[in-house]
Amino acid sequence: MNQEQVKRLAEKIIQLDIKRDELYEELIVISGGRASEVLRSVQNH
Question: Up-side HSE of residue 28: CA atoms within 13 Å toward CB?
Answer without folding.
Answer: 6
